[in-house]
Amino acid sequence: MPDLDPDPTSDFERVDVPSGGVPRVVDTERDLAEAMESLRGGSGPVAVDAERASGYRYGQRAYLVQLSRRGSGTWLVDPVPFADLAGLDEVLAPDEWVLHAATQDIPCLAEVGLRPRALFDTELGARLAGLPRVGLSASLEYYLGVTLAKEHSAVDWSTRPLPEPWLRYAALDVELLVDLRDRMERDLAEQGKLAWARQEFAALVDFRPRSADGEDWRRTSGMHRVRRPRNLAALRELWHARDAIAQERDVAPSRIVPDSTLVDLATRMPLHPSGLASERPDRSRSRQRRAEQGLQRYQRTWLDAVRRAAELPEEELPAPSPRSEGPPPARAWAERDPAAAQRLSMARAELATLSERVDVPVENLMTPEHVRKVLWRPPSTVSARTVDEAFAALGARPWQRELVVPLVVAALQEHP
C-alpha cells in the first residue's frame, strides 16, 4: 500500500507517495520489454490511465500511460518514443482493464495501439452504486477512506522531462484503482446491480467517439451570438482556418486565438486589417493578449476566411442549426405535438421516481435522447415487445429496457 499521511483537517487519510517510490518513466525498448514481462507475470485486473495535454497540444493524444497490477507494481510508459504500444496491448489483451471514466481514455489509448477487451469503469460503477460524487478522489474516499492530491491534473503532459511531482501524481492515479474496483464490485453485488454494471462495461469496450460529420465548428463557445447564415459561414471559415494552424503547430486551437475572437470576427466580418481588433476587450488579460497576438500574426488568414464567407453563394451558406433526424427540443413539443409533450412529461416523472427507488441517476437508467426518440415517434403498434425492440435498436442494454420499457409503454398508452 502507498504511504498514508493523516490529514488533521479531514476524516480521510491523504495518499501522497506511491508504495516503493515514484516509478521511472519507460521510454526505451529495453525498459518497455521489462515492463511487459513484469505485467505478464502479475495477477488479476490491470489498472490503466492516460494523461493528455488538453489545452496545450492539438488533439487528445496520450503523453503518458500508467499501468498497475498486483505482483508487478506500477509502470509509467511514455508512448511518444514508440511507433505504437501493440506489444504491450498483446500482453494485456487477456485481462480486465480498470479505468476511471473510460470514455475519456479509450480514444487516446487506441491511438497508441491499446484497446481493452474487458473493462471495469469505476466512475460508471460509482454512478450505478448511487454515490453522490463519482470522481476518482471521491470514490476512493467513500470505499477506501483515503484521498488523493489532484493538483497536477491540468498540466501540460507533453513536457519533457516530466517533473517528479507529476509522475508521483500519475502513479497514484492507478495504484489504488484495483482495490477500488474490488470494493465497488462487492457493493454493486450487495445492491443487486452487478449484472447491470457488467452489461454497461461490456458496451464500453466498443466505445467510439461520436463523429461530428464536419460540424465541429458548431461547438464554438458563444456561437449563439452568431445568427445570420452569412455570419455563420464566416465562423465556419474562421474555425477551419484556426484548426489548420493549430494542427500544423501542434497546439490547442484556443492558444492561437480564443473562441470569443472567432465569434467577434464572424459577427463583424472585417475585410481590412484595421478592422480586426475588437472594440470589446476580453475580461481575461491572458485571453486578450493571446487574441491580440494571434490576430496580428495571422491577420491575412483571418481576412481571407472572412472574404471567402462574404463571397459564398446563398445556397452554400450553412443552416442556422444542423439538420437532425431526431426529435425537436423538448420545449417545442407542446406546440408541435401536445400528446407527445404529455407522454414526455409523464415518462419523466415516472423515471424520476424510479431513479430514487433504485438509486441510479436518471441519465444512466436510459439515455435521455433514446427516451425522447421513442416517445416522439413511437412504434406503429405499442406493446412491451415493440417498445423494447425500439430501445434495443438504439443500443439500450437489457437491464435498462427491463426497468424503463414498462414506464414508456404506460406513457404511450395513456397519451396515444
From TrEMBL:
InterPro entries (UniProt xref): 3'-5'_exonuclease_dom (IPR002562), Exo_C (IPR041605), HRDC-like_sf (IPR010997), HRDC_dom (IPR002121), HRDC_dom_sf (IPR044876), RNase_D-like (IPR051086), RNaseH-like_sf (IPR012337), RNaseH_sf (IPR036397)
**What segment(s) does the record annotate as region Disordered?**
1-24, 267-295, 312-336
Q: Which GO terms describe its molecular function?
A: 3'-5' exonuclease activity; nucleic acid binding; nucleotide binding
Q: Which residues form a coiled coil?
A: none
The annotated regions of Acidic residues compositional bias extend over 1-10
The residues covered by the HRDC domain are 228-316
Q: Where is the composition biased (Pro residues)?
A: 319-330
Name the source's superkingdom: Bacteria
| Pfam families reported in the protein's UniProt record | DNA_pol_A_exo1, DNA_pol_A_exoN, HRDC
Here the segments flagged for biased composition (Basic and acidic residues) are: 279-292
Q: Name one GO biological process term.
A: nucleobase-containing compound metabolic process
Supply the name of the protein.
Ribonuclease D
